[in-house]
Specification:
- By secondary structure, the protein is mostly helical.
- It contains four helices and no strands.
- The N and C termini lie far apart (about 35 Å).
- The relative contact order is 0.16.
Length: about 130
């Protein structure tokens, strides 16, 4: 794979960015520099880390950056659920984003596993 833009997971993560930016526009203006900003940072981090990891030309570093993207994915999901919990959005508002988050998560896991040599396994944390 020559270019990170060829990665389907990166393409899906970019779709997620677009969806989430539309959602953020619906949040109250008083959230502009707090929750809205955090959400934008988290969603941008996902495709950015995929791209940066791919550009490092090191499988070990790519795996590490995919792990960072997975962390940002979890952060984003939490932030969207907070928006529902505090009644800024409802479950139907975030449904498309949550589905994309799940899809990107599965793809990140699959890509990460495909890069790990057979004699090395990711150690889950508790």
């Amino acid at each position: 794979m020559k270019d990170f833009k060829d990665l389907i997971v990166w393409q899906k993560a970019m779709e997620l960015v677009t969806e989430v930016y539309c959602l953020v526009k619906r949040l109250p203006k008083e959230e502009l520099f707090s929750l809205s900003d955090q959400i934008r940072r988290a969603v941008i981090s996902i495709p950015s880390n995929i791209a940066e990891g791919h550009g490092r030309n090191s499988t070990k570093e790519f795996i590490q950056f995919l792990a960072i993207a997975k962390g940002s994915k979890a952060e984003l999901e939490t932030q969207l659920l907070i928006c529902v919990k505090i009644h800024y959005l409802n479950n139907s508002d975030i449904e498309i984003a949550i589905n994309l988050i799940k899809e990107v998560g599965k793809m990140l896991n699959a890509l990460q596993k495909s890069l790990i040599p057979n004699n090395y396994a990711l150690q889950p944390h508790s």
